[in-house]
Structures are given as C-alpha cells and as structure tokens.
Design brief:
This protein has no helices and 39 strands. It is mainly β.
Length: about 500
C-alpha cells in the first residue's frame, strides 16, 4: 500500500551578489587621486575563489531539512567574460521527492549562454524525482553585461512522497491424486494425494478432503478423509497416502478437494477398478458302484467373475469306503485328499478334472470337492455314490469215487463259495438222481428233505463273502451206464437256479 502526501507551491529564493572588476587604479602620494566613481576600486590583481551559499530547506537544519541546496559562483567576474556557476540540489530524506523544480531569477545585467540541463523558457528546471540522498546539479554559463553587481536568486518547489511498502503475495494451491488402477476385491487400494503451493506466499488453513464413494472405506472403517495443514509455504508440498478397501467389485472414483484461506480451491480425481473373481464347481459320478469296481468322477471348475482367480486349488476328500486310483492334470494324493493346483483362471476360464476311485466297502460314499483361490470364496460340490456288494456264488460238484461198480456207492461233494463282496442269502441246494442210482444218505451245512430221487436241502440263511458251504450226498449204483448227478443252486440274489452236473461212470 502506498501513501502519497503532496505539498505544492513550496519555493524558496537564494540570492547572492557578484562584484565585477571594472579596472584597477593605483593610489599613492605621487599620483593624483582618481575621480570619484560609482563603483569602488578593487585592489589590483585577480580575485580568486567562489561564493558558496548552502543551507537546508525548509528549515536551516539537517534535523528538519528536506533539501540541501548549494549555489556556487565565482567571487568576481569581468564584464563580457563567460563564467560558470552551479546549483546542487540533494534530497536528505529517506523518502522519494517528486515534482522537484528549480527556477532561476536572473539579474537584468546577466546573459545566459548555455545551461545543462536545459531549462524551460522561464528558466525553470524540472528535476522530476529525487531518490533518498540523490543529488542533481544544474550548470549555467553566461556573462555580465555591465559593472552593476549581480544578484540572482533561485526558487524551488517539490512534492514529498511518504510511502509505506506492503508485500503482496499470491498463494496458489494445486492438487494431484493417484490410486491403484486395478485391484482384486480382497486387495488394498492405495490412494495418494499431494497438495502443493505454487504461489508466492504461504497458504493458510489448508483443508484437504476426500469423500469416499459408497462401497469403499479406509482400513480403519472411515468413509471420508480430512487433512488439515495450518500453513503451506510457497513451493512446499504435502503428500498423504491411504489404504482403502472395497466391499464389492466396480469402478470407483475418488474426488479430492483442497481449500485454503483467501478462497483458494483445487480439485483432483483418481479412479480404481475393483474386480471380483468368483468360482463355480460341479461334480458328477456314478450313482451306484459295486465293491472292488472303479468309480470315475468328473470335476468342472469355472471362473464366473470379472477378475483373475489366482492360485486356484481344488481339493477332493476321499470317502472312507473308497481308495485312490488315479487323477489327471497332475492331481496328487495328500493323505486322504487329492489336490490340483490350477494356477490362474481368467474370467470365463474353466477346467475339467478327472478322478478315479475304487470302492472298498459297502455304504454311501459322499465324495466332496472344494475350490478356492486368492480373493475367491470357497465353493463346494459333492457326488454321492451308493457302494454295494454282490454275492458271486461258485458251485462245484465232484464224485469221490469214479468209476463205480454196480452195487457199490460213491459220495458227491457239493461246495458253494461266495466269491463276491456281499452276503449270499438263503442259499438253497437241490439234487436230483437218475434212475440208475439210489439215495443212501446226506449231510452238510443244512438239513435235507428227500422225496424220491430229489434231495432238497434247507436254505442256508447267509453265506458271507469268501465263505464256503459244503453238502454231501451218498448214493448207490444200481445200473451200469454214464450217469449225471444234477445239482441246482439258488439264492435270494440269484433269483433263478444255477445247474451243475457231475458225470459218473457206473459198470
């Protein structure tokens, strides 16, 4: 802010007289005195030196003066001879003076030859501005027209300026924001905000605010961020970094504003895309399998999300009544699990895995499988297979004596073996003799009933897997010939009889 005090019309006059030497007249007793003249007679010889007049204005004291003025002229000049005189004007204040003007009031018997600087027509020099302690000089050259003493005066005017320096600043705030361009939903979003003062003065009471969009918050659960900076110096920057977490996939824009005293404002934006991988899993297998038979399962894993499913692992837990046989795609057995490391599944990628197990005991085999990856919730699927046993009955009939002489006897041994994996229930044996043989007796696993040539054994309630049951039938040969001893075996599981014959040569 500048204050100007102007005083116009101030002037003062400085006058002095110069005596011009007209001639020299010697005065002694041998010479008659000269005729009295109007001008005094100056002693012979030149008069040297200057007349100098100097003082302070407007008061003749350095303590209160504004201008220090010197006027310097020769003490004596000769009519018609050019001479110089100077005027020095000095500003003794600590403040600038403007409109400084010097006017010379010349005597009538003085002729100006030249002046530096040149004056106006009325012999006024406009010195314009005098800085503190600055001196400007006026040099005038001229001559006297006659012997009259010359008295000339100067007149000075000025305008004082009283100035107060006020520093003007212009702070300017700029704002930049940057965030992680793309993340998975379980990853942290890094948001960095930098506020900078690019101006020429300090920015006061800077407030930086970021309003988080719906679905995003800081790792501490805040939904908005505010930073306060009491003073941001010119050229200074402040950087703030935050860790954010998105609750779902989507595109998020972070709007950050900065405000400061003096209505200073700045705004910036940063955008992050949050992607969510999602796995689906399905498993198929046989509904029923018999003990000892292979069960083949197919597992399909797919990424149905919009982000990469990284480090995808599939784990299949074996049922207690099944054992591992083989797996493709580098599946490996780890205790009671089969593991597949699938790496990264991009969106819409799928992988089909094949697993073969072997049924080892009866029961319901629930084969559970799961898949999980980075940022992917675990998904599960299962396939239930009914493991059943099956009886496999083997009947063998042999004659202990062959050939047999008529009138002699032989024994037929009937052996039933359950080669299967399940109980055989109500195993029944029925034997039939030809006319050339005669029933003698029987024994075995169950009691019998004989009707003519047919021997029926009572059903054996249960024959365990790998177990055997034996029945014996004693007969007598009554007629020579090639005889066929016929045995029929049946059970609840078979449903229809199995026939076996043994040939005996009777003679």
């Amino acid at each position: 802010m500048k204050k100007i005090f102007k005083i116009s019309g101030i002037f003062f006059a400085v006058c002095f007289a110069s005596v011009f030497l007209h001639g020299c007249v010697s005065c002694n007793n041998n010479i008659a005195p000269a005729k009295a003249e109007a001008k005094p007679c100056i002693d012979c010889g030149p008069v040297t030196g200057d007349n100098t007049l100097a003082f302070y204005y407007p008061c003749d004291s350095k303590a209160c003066g504004v201008l220090y003025v010197e006027k310097i002229a020769p003490k004596q000049v000769q009519v018609g001879q050019e001479f110089d005189y100077v005027i020095n004007v000095t500003n003794v204040l600590k403040y600038k003076l403007t409109d400084v003007k010097v006017s010379e009031i010349l005597p009538s018997n003085f002729t100006v030859t030249s002046s530096s600087p040149k004056p106006s027509a009325d012999m006024t020099w406009n010195l314009d501005t005098l800085a503190p302690n600055e001196t400007k000089q006026i040099k005038i050259t001229g001559s006297a027209k006659n012997e009259e003493p010359m008295t000339n005066c100067i007149k000075i005017s000025y305008t004082p300026l009283l100035c107060v320096l006020t520093t003007v600043i212009k702070p300017s705030i700029a704002l930049t924001s940057d965030s992680t361009p793309e993340v998975l939903s379980c990853d942290k979003i890094l948001l960095t905000t930098t506020v900078t003062n690019n101006g020429t003065g300090s920015a006061m009471d800077v407030l930086v605010t970021t309003a988080l969009p719906s679905g995003v918050e800081t790792i501490h659960g805040k939904t908005s961020i505010t930073e306060s900076i009491p003073c941001l110096k010119c050229g200074e920057s402040k950087t703030f970094t935050y860790e954010l977490q998105a609750s779902k996939s989507g595109k998020y824009t972070f709007n950050t504003t900065a405000k400061a005293e003096g209505n200073l404002k700045a705004e910036s934006f940063a955008t992050t895309v949050v992607r969510q991988p999602e796995l689906s899993i399905a498993k198929t297998g046989p509904e029923k399998i018999y003990i000892g038979r292979p069960a083949k399962y197919s597992i399909t894993v797919k990424n149905t999300g919009d982000g990469n499913a990284i480090n995808t692992v599939v784990s299949d837990t074996l049922p207690a009544n099944m054992s591992f046989s083989s797996a493709d795609n580098n599946g490996r057995l780890d205790k009671n699990r089969v593991l597949w490391n699938l790496g990264t599944l991009q969106p819409n990628d799928s992988k089909t895995l094949n697993l073969e197990l072997v049924a080892v005991s009866k029961g319901s085999a629930v084969n559970k499988v799961s898949a999980i990856g980075d940022c992917c919730p675990q998904v599960t699927a299962s396939a239930t297979t009914s493991v059943e046993g099956i009886p496999a009955l083997l009947i063998e009939v042999i004659d202990l004596d062959d050939p047999v002489e008529v009138g002699s006897g032989t024994t037929y041994v009937i052996t039933v073996t359950n080669q299967g994996s399940a109980d055989a229930n109500n195993v029944k044996i029925v034997c039939t003799l030809e006319d050339s043989q005669e029933y003698v007796s029987c024994s075995g696993a169950t009691k019998s009933e004989v009707k003519g040539k047919v021997i029926s054994f009572m059903p054996l309630p249960k024959l365990d897997p790998k177990a055997q049951a034996t029945w014996n039938v004693d007969v007598k040969s009554v007629k020579a010939g090639d005889v066929r001893f016929t045995v029929e075996m049946n059970s609840d599981e078979l449903g229809r009889p199995v026939k076996e014959t043994e040939s005996t040569n009777q003679y």
